[in-house]
Amino acid sequence: MEIAWKSAGSFPVKFADDAFGEGDTTLVETIREVTGAEKPRIMLVADQNVVQRTLGLGTKIGRYLQANAIELAAPAIVLGGGEKIKCDNMQSSLHIARAALDAKLGQSDAMLVLGGGTIFDVAGYAAAQVRGGVRIVRIPTTIAAALDGAYALTANLNSQNVKDAFRVPCRPAAVIVDSTFANTVLDGVWRGGFSEAVRHAAVNDGALMRKIAKSAEAIRNRDVAVAKDLVRAVVESRVKKGTTDFALWSASRLEAMSGYKLPHGYAVAIAICLDAAYAVEKEHLKEEDQELICRVLADCGALDGLTHSRHILSQVDSLLCGLDALRLSSGSEAITIPAGVGKRCVEQTPDRETFRNVVKEFLSASEG
Q1: What would the pLDDT profile of 57-82 be if each residue is shown by its tens digit?
Q2: What are residue 10's DSSP bridge partners?
Q3: Within 10 Å of residue 96's Cβ, how many Cβ atoms?
Q4: What's the pLDDT score for residue 180?
Q5: Cα–Cα distance measured from residue 254 to residue 264, given in angstroms and rounded to the nearest whole number
Q6: How far is 248 from 236, CA to CA, in rounded Å?
Q7: In 3D, which of 42, 164, 14 has the Cα closest to residue 103?
Q8: By C-alpha distance, which of 157, 239, 202, 230 is closest to 336?
Q9: pLDDT of residue 39
Q10: How many CB atoms lie within 10 A of CB 321?
Q11: Strand (E) positions, the chain?
């Protein structure tokens, strides 16, 4: 499978059941393709949560690298996950960059990154700086990353309470989706992650939305087989239908307003509901379609973060500053909203007063 954008080329996306398992050649073949070397050199960056929650992972990776003649150019770098490592004045990224320089990592080598979206951002920011850009292979371990973050074409860091304030181009050389890491994430991260599937389907793929609706209960119950099938379906849909920025402006603002305590998946789920309600008020979306979108999010557990987010939503004017941030980063306040399940339209100048009413009504309904 190839994901391609005209401005950035393409990269392979491969699926593995156990990328570091004995006899699985997906990873070694990918690294050889990426580096062009029969005995490649890599640098490994991993999420601490994944390492701690996967028994014997370090030993398993070491054996795999040795068995497949892959040289580890430097000791693995293990970082705590979460948005906080994107808010440390670039210290985590600089740590990785300096290690890459010390290891003499270059254009014929690769950085292998194992984790979620924040690890991809921090490591990617470093990789993009070292010697004009070191190739990066991403192995997503969270649902949100497997559905969205792993395919990002930029690496972003936060600053001064601005989410993704600093951005550099960072196209992955390859992505390997490994279902064995599904059990390493907490329930909230698991359930919230599927909001990315809903975000894509709501404006791009009605058939996929119906598939997600049928799978919602199994997702809540952490059925790995169902999740694996759904992740593949979303990735295939992204290839055919393209990407979307639907609900990202409000999700990013909600995360920043919470001091990055609100997990990304939960923020996306709330943002989807708000933007869908706005689409109803602007007569782009039918109420029954809005109800379907929000019900699917609730059924799979992606709205579980709402209970602890009401104090944020009560700060409506602060939330709407997300539109100002959008204008600063893109030159426009135009937002994508659903125009039917699986369809979209663009609101060039969002009506802030309507959004204020939508947020207040959403708060009132959720409290009831």
Answers
A1: 999 999 999 999 999 999 999 998 78
A2: 4
A3: 25
A4: 84
A5: 9
A6: 21
A7: 42
A8: 202
A9: 93
A10: 13
A11: 2-5, 9-16, 41-47, 71-72, 77-79, 110-115, 135-140, 154-159, 162-169, 174-178, 335-338, 344-347
Here the tokens at position 354 are 């309507």
Measuring CA to CA, which residue among 257, 297, 306, 253 is closest to residue 276?
297
Q: What percent of the chain has pLDDT over 90?
A: 88
293 touches 276 (CB < 8 A): yes
Tokens 């759904």 sit at which residue? 230
d(CA 194, CA 200): 10
Instruction: For the chain, give the longest Cα–Cα distance.
Output: 62
Q: Tell me the β-bridge partners of 137.
A: 112, 174
User: How do strand 135-140 and strand 71-72 relate by DSSP bridges?
Assistant: unpaired
| Amino acid (1-letter code) at residue 278 | Y
- At 7, is the pLDDT very low, low, confident or very high (cuts 50, 70, 90)? very low
Give 72-110 as a DSSP string. Answer: E-SPPEEE--SGGGGSSTTHHHHHHHHHHHHTT--TT-E
Residues 269-283 have a mean pLDDT of 97
SS3 assignment, position 138: strand
In 10 A of CB 74, how many CB atoms? 16
Look at residues 135, 103, 122, 131 and name the one whose alpha carbon lies nearest to residue 168: 122
pTM: 0.93
- Assign residue 175 a region (left: φ > 0; alpha: ψ between -120 and 50; beta: otherwise): beta
Three-state secondary structure call for residue 343: coil
Mean pLDDT across the chain: 93
Q: Please name every residue paired with 345 in a beta bridge, in sequence order, or none if there are none.
A: 337
Whether the Cβ atoms of residue 255 and residue 83 lie closer than 8 Å to each other: yes
Q: What is the DSSP letter of 44?
A: E
Q: Per-residue pLDDT for 304 more than 60?
A: yes
Contact of 363 with 310, CB cutoff 8 Å: yes
> What span, in angstroms and rounded, lies between the C-alpha atoms of 202 and 180?
28
What is the distance between the alpha carbons of residues 146 and 126, in angstroms, rounded to a whole number? 21
